[in-house]
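Honest question from a wet-lab person: if I give you the sequences of every part of a complex, can you actually get the arrangement of the whole thing, not just the pieces? Trying it with mine:
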Amino acid sequence: MMIEGTHFLAGQDIADVAWKLVAVNLSDLAAKGAEPLGVLLGYALGGDDARFAEGLAEACAAFGVPLLGGDTVRGMGPRSFGLTALGRASHAPVPDRRGARAGDAIYVTGALGAAMLGFEALRDGTGADSLAYRRPRPLLAEGRALAPVVSAMMDVSDGLLLDCWRMARASQVTFRLHGTAIPVAATARRAECLRWGDDYQLLFTAPADRPLPIAAARIGSVEARGRAPLCLDGDWLNDPDRLGYQH
Amino acid sequence: MMIEGTHFLAGQDIADVAWKLVAVNLSDLAAKGAEPLGVLLGYALGGDDARFAEGLAEACAAFGVPLLGGDTVRGMGPRSFGLTALGRASHAPVPDRRGARAGDAIYVTGALGAAMLGFEALRDGTGADSLAYRRPRPLLAEGRALAPVVSAMMDVSDGLLLDCWRMARASQVTFRLHGTAIPVAATARRAECLRWGDDYQLLFTAPADRPLPIAAARIGSVEARGRAPLCLDGDWLNDPDRLGYQH
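Yes, you can. This is the full assembly:
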């Protein structure tokens, strides 16, 4: 669900909003190793419906998913959009966030913070590349390749540290992370990059000696539960409000 | 999708809104003869989340469907809720609104206008029964029983006349309706009852000589396409804006 003012800027190109609505839902399927079958849209009508439809069509074409149906409504005030993506699991058991085990290695598929830089470029009108924020790409092929290999998997939508904390807590273990091993889009702003969401990389764990079918950065190790779910460079972190975007 | 101010009154019991959100989506499944498998909710948080959860739980229990997942968001302004109901077709071909054929009879499962009376009771605080408006019941068992028998089926959500017009147009035929044969909740206000939505009765067509598995009112006959999709007591009706709730 995306609400004007909360999930997108009022003046933002509504085609980008449509794209993102599709992409972030497909990212949830990617984290399950699922093949997308189609999407259902709940759409609040506005003055820019044609432009929304363009972005929606572009996203559906890019990711090979049909728009199956949905609902259109009229309302007052900030607009809201809802999308449900349907998919079919490609591997059983379906990966979730509860399966990380002591001895596993922790991985992430790519750099964090690219969406943050894109957001700032858009907000400040610098002309710098904002594609990572406006048009994220769900890692569908990567998720399917990883599903048979991982012990736990989720997409990083609310910040790497927060999502690591959640996965560690759900798995009743501790994630020990090595800060400099975590790929970021802006090394001078590492702490922010680790707390910004919207990148839609995949975070996963797997037995440390298991070969991976795709490239990924090894960012830490899973240990038996210690003082807190998360330990970054020796610091125990246990306040989720300081780790990322809570909603 | 339901938006505050458009689909429900600002002061309305939010438990009723939750119930209705489930019920109207399951009604779409009923019209397809489908068995519901579960629902996914997009929920804008507010101050009455516990009360919403109560109504949601009551509806899910009443209709035997689990809440499978969804999304919660924060936003400003009028609240919006989206729900996707998943179901499995019980009969192929799945009924739709395009299959009405000349010679078919037209049926509706029950009285129209009950929701109108309920809405007015609630709005005016008369203390009269408002259950039909607040807590509609999707006709799931009826829809499944009818699916193998009907030539076309849909639920009446926007007014009987408008939905008849739509079904006739989609089937490229004319629906000839007999006004007095149409069951209404308030005979003195027949014209309004035929134009008010929210009753969630099932409208369907079937060959005139085919026995029906449930009780239904026969309200007219399907003819080859004439001057307009709809003819009520000899009057040709072709202005959808005057037939029901357009959105």
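Two things worth pointing out. Chain A has a mean pLDDT of 94. The CA atoms of residues 145 and 213 of chain A lie 6 Å apart.
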